[in-house]
Amino acid sequence: MTGEQSEKEAATVESAAQLTEYFERVASLLRDVDVGRVAALAELLRDTLDTGAQVFFIGNGGSAATATHYVNDLVMAAARAGRSIRVVSLSDNASVITGIGNDFGFNEVFELQLRTMGQPGDLVVAISASGNSPNLVAALEYAQSAGMRTAAVVSFDGGALRSLAQTAVHVPTEAGEYGPAEDAHMVINHAIASLLSQLLT
After folding, report:
1. Residue of 175, 109, 117, 115 whose CA lies nearest to 136
2. Quick one: how far is CA 131 from the chain centroid?
3. Which of 59, 70, 179, 200 could potentially form a cystine with 63 if both were Cys, beta carbons 3.0 to 4.6 Å apart?
4. pTM above threshold 0.85
5. Of 126, 43, 47, 37, which is closest to residue 85 (Cα–Cα)?
6. φ/ψ (deg, to 5) at 197
């Protein structure tokens, strides 16, 4: 074995150890999640589906992608049970997001959409690692004032959204621990979708 090969093998072993540490961190975070809160969110989603109200997901950055994924999985879970759910991510329309951001300010990109489309009884679900994004806080504050129900999936210390939302799922991470937080949020999504597929049949 050459010195170069030995160095490569050592680097691979070190990388594997770091990856193992990352995976174990995500697993440990999931063990700390209050499963009862996840079940409460699933029941809230089922209740919204049963009433025919609309579900709006909102999030920024990586959480915007997570919001889109939640929408996909909820649509598919309902369809597999022979049901349909009115659910949309308000993060998905780039023209609307940039138009509102340009003309009114980024803090209003979700609130203004809710003012246009939201109705009493609808459900707004905010997804955020920090729980402190001003546009998400503004959206949930408006939603509650307009008679909509609110929920949040958050990490770090939960931020403002954890106490503001009527139903909150908290994945306790260190501040700035975005990757594991967003990974856990996605696992929660898949768990809820799996549960709803069974509850709706």
Report:
1. 109
2. 11
3. 59
4. yes
5. 47
6. -55, -35
Whose tokens are 């920024």? That residue is: 60
Residue identified by tokens 């609808």 is 122
SS3 113: helix
CA distance 28 to 21: 10
Q: What gap in Å lies between CA 167 and CA 108, rounded to an integer? A: 22
Residue of 155, 141, 144 whose CA lies nearest to 186: 155
For 188, phi then psi, to 5°, come to: -60, -40
Q: Which of 105, 106, 122 is nearest to 114 (CA)?
A: 122
Taking the C-alpha atoms of residue 175 and residue 18, their distance in angstroms, rounded to an integer, is 20
Q: Give me the tens of pLDDT residue by residue for the chain, a chain 201 residues long.
A: 565 666 667 667 789 999 999 999 999 999 999 999 999 999 999 999 999 999 999 999 999 999 999 999 999 999 998 999 999 999 999 999 999 999 999 999 999 999 999 999 999 999 999 999 999 999 999 999 999 999 999 999 999 999 999 999 999 999 999 999 999 999 999 999 999 988 887
Query: Following CA atoms 169, 139, 92, 152 in sequence, which dihedral angle do they give, to the nearest 10 degrees?
Result: 0
CA atoms within 13 A on the CB side of 116: 9
CATH number assigned to the domain with residue range 34-199, chosen from the 4 options 1.10.10.10, 3.40.30.10, 3.40.50.10490, 3.40.50.10470 = 3.40.50.10490
